[in-house]
Write a structure and sequence with these properties.
heterodimer; A: 462 residues; B: 100 residues; mainly alpha; flat
């Protein structure tokens, strides 16, 4: 084996980077190790990027440096200044950038190696997935940011139209390959970007955990496909690193996507093609009426409880009530009440959303419990405070024929008392009446989550 | 198909199983960091962007390659900072709670 100093050094660095990426991802399975994991992965990434500059035969260094500086600073600055509550859309946006980069790399490969069928075919595949990922992520970003309606936007005959768009788009890609004519690449990318938009528009806010997670996996796959195309070219070494890192993310992301869909008892296909929540259920077999309670009575109820479980949902995020919730929890604990948090896997707008917000408020994560853990506790809980959550606590999930049928929920109705903090009498995202609100042990506390929790804190201090 | 592509395919299959096994059972608590962290890891796309722009010859290739580099760089730094911020909060919340 002859030693070729520069390429061998570059490859050695890529090998180390890949190992560190895997270990870094592994470290994500425990809160004690997670932070160290991302730090090491960051260092490995930095070195991998730096040695790539040494690759033989590169030119355009000034442009590369300028691009890295612009993108790097913009990403760094934006991620630093953004509010914690805007995290879901930031993750969507940075993920979309990765998809866009993958699509652009595919475009360069196609422009330069259109006559090499293997490279061009792989690049078309990378271009398809990368384009869908960036367009879909941008729509998800706009919806989460509130610049686009969060409710499903349903166009007529959309299944037919969408399928036609993607088939025609891929057809243009195939045309470009067969005719080795780059002019077809323009409609190819245009149609696939359009498909990404059309695919994401009909998806409502509460399904975003599945969507963000899936686009993350898709970007990983697009990066891996680009990696394959590069492997087949003159500077293949970077390609291997992309194949491994991209596939790693594709696999991990797919797993997380399935977990999220399972937590709603729906298939990923149903999330993407079902336009869930676009129609409202009419006339469910709900009987009784909602019974209001005021803050003073609610405070007394909680103050004399042995155990209070707080179930947060997207409403807490919207009202930015997490700091007040921390105050409330501390006050109750000072009165000897045991306070726990019950977290549904799809509460909020991204996987783990509630955990992040509560952590931001300084609530210790050993007080947060998963669905299965907390469900065992409800029968012995005195008061459950439902804070801006709706569908994930709806007992209609246990009823045959309900659109929510079979969704694993938090069984809060088994507690002695349930207090629901809610802005008005409207329905949840799924457009379904919540049976819980009509139960005998349930009281409604109307108002903005932050103000209402603030009132509870004031009452408890008296 | 070139030997290199077969090699890459073997590697990809192994990487897919690795990704699946490594994640295994991640607690709900860490779903966001996991997603955000893997978001950062596919930022390796920047390396591909650098190579693509580095070997680009005509102005169109250069322009598209430049877009790839800018987007890849945003992905990688943004993904890192977001993940770091989230994990820093978990650290803090643990300490505050543990101090009691």
């Amino acid at each position: 084996m002859t030693i070729d100093v520069v390429p061998d050094t570059i490859n050695a660095v890529y090998v180390v980077a890949v190992i560190v990426f895997i270990l870094g991802l592994k470290a994500m399975s425990s809160p004690e190790t997670a932070r160290r994991g991302i730090l090491f992965a960051g260092i490995a990434m930095l070195i991998a990027v730096l040695v790539t500059f040494l690759s033989p035969g590169l030119s355009n260094f000034a442009l590369i440096a300028l691009g890295v500086a612009i993108g790097g600073l913009a990403g760094w600055y934006w991620a630093r200044v953004v509010q914690m509550t805007a995290m879901p859309q930031m993750v969507a946006m940075f993920n979309g950038m990765g998809g866009g980069a993958a699509a652009a790399i595919a475009a360069v490969e196609l422009l330069s190696s259109l006559s090499n069928l293997a490279t061009a075919g792989l690049s078309v595949a990378g271009g398809v997935i990368g384009s869908i990922s960036i367009a879909g992520s941008v729509i998800a970003f706009l919806k989460l940011q509130g610049w686009l309606r969060s409710k499903p936007i349903v166009l007529p005959a959309r299944q037919v139209v969408n399928t036609a768009v993607v088939v025609v788009g891929v057809g243009f890609g195939a045309f470009a390959l067969l005719r080795t004519d780059a002019v077809w690449l323009l409609p190819f990318f245009a149609f696939l970007l359009l498909y990404g938009i059309l695919l994401t528009l009909p998806i409502g806010g509460a399904d975003m955990p599945v969507v963000i997670s899936l686009f993350n996996a898709l970007t990983g796959i697009a990066v891996a496909l680009d990696g394959f195309a590069l492997v087949n070219g003159p500077l293949g070494d970077a390609g291997y690193a992309m194949v491994i890192a991209g596939t790693l993310v594709g696999a991990a992301g797919s797993l997380l996507t399935l977990l999220m869909a399972k937590a709603m008892n729906r298939s990923v296909a149903n999330v993407f093609f079902g336009a869930f929540g676009a129609t409202e259920e009419t006339g469910g077999p709900v009987q009784g009426q909602m019974k209001p309670i005021d803050a003073a009575d609610a405070a007394v109820l909680m103050a004399y409880a042995n155990q209070v479980v707080i179930v947060p949902g997207y409403g807490m995020a919207v009202a930015q009530a997490q700091q007040k919730v921390k105050e409330l929890a501390d006050l109750l604990e000072s009165k000897g009440v045991s306070v726990k948090f019950g977290i549904h896997p799809v509460a909020g707008r991204m996987p783990g959303h509630m955990n992040v917000l509560l952590a931001e408020a300084g609530i210790s994560y050993d007080k947060l419990f998963d669905r299965d853990e907390i469900n065992a506790e409800f029968p012995s809980t005195d008061v459950v405070l439902v804070l801006g959550a709706n569908d994930v606590v709806n007992p209609a999930a246990h009823r045959k024929g309900s659109p929510l049928e079979g969704m694993p929920i938090l069984d809060v109705e088994q507690a002695k008392n349930v207090i629901v903090i809610k802005r008005g009498q409207g329905k949840g995202f799924a457009g379904i009446e919540n049976d819980l609100f009509y139960r005998d042990n349930c009281r409604m506390l109307y108002g903005d989550a932050q103000q209402v929790v603030g009132k509870l804190v004031t009452e408890l201090k008296k | 198909m070139a030997a290199d592509l077969w090699t890459a395919l073997f590697i990809a299959i192994l990487a897919a199983f690795t990704g699946y096994e490594v994640i295994g059972r991640v607690p709900v608590l860490l779903h966001t960091p996991l997603m955000s962290g893997s978001n950062f890891i596919h930022g390796i796309v920047l390396v591909g962007g650098i190579v693509a722009l580095g070997i680009a010859t005509d102005p169109l290739e250069q322009a598209v390659g430049f877009v790839a580099v800018v987007m890849g760089a945003m992905n990688v730094t943004g993904g890192y900072v977001v993940t770091e911020r989230i994990l820093a909060m978990f650290d803090r919340s643990k300490r505050k709670g543990g101090a009691k």
